[in-house]
Amino acid sequence: MSSLGPLRQVVGHPMRAYYVPIMGGLVLAVSAFMPWIVVGSEEYGGVPDLAGFWVLGLAVMALVLAGLSIATRKNSRHPLLLVGLFAFGVLFLSERLMERAAAQQGWAAEQARAIVTGSEARAVSEPVMAPGAYIGLGASTMIALFGLTVVVKRAPQIHALPEDDDV
Hints:
mainly alpha
């Protein structure tokens, strides 16, 4: 038995397109454990937060839907479209909200430190989007675009049937 046997089975599988949302789900699950916002040395986002658990659950749902599609050979692109869009929305909105909350928290901590020490407040560093948010947004976009392929249909092939003129 050759070592390329399992690879040939994967490449030749009729539902091989569903490996795209499986990879997207795995990457989305990894991004759920990464920070999404960085302010100085503080990191926000990821699994300890509620949004991180939502993204992790959506990643597992994408993996289950794609795995079931491969196993049963049934199409599940509509639910994958919804999962991808919902994951993108959760990531994007939570990143926006976390950015504002992190900036306000940093400002409040610096003001409190200035009051206690009796000195001027220093400038607070701006929140920056961390690689976890970029990776998660990319993976959720990949899942949503795969689900969107259900809308794109191939044009029917029109073949002219030869007429029998001898009749």
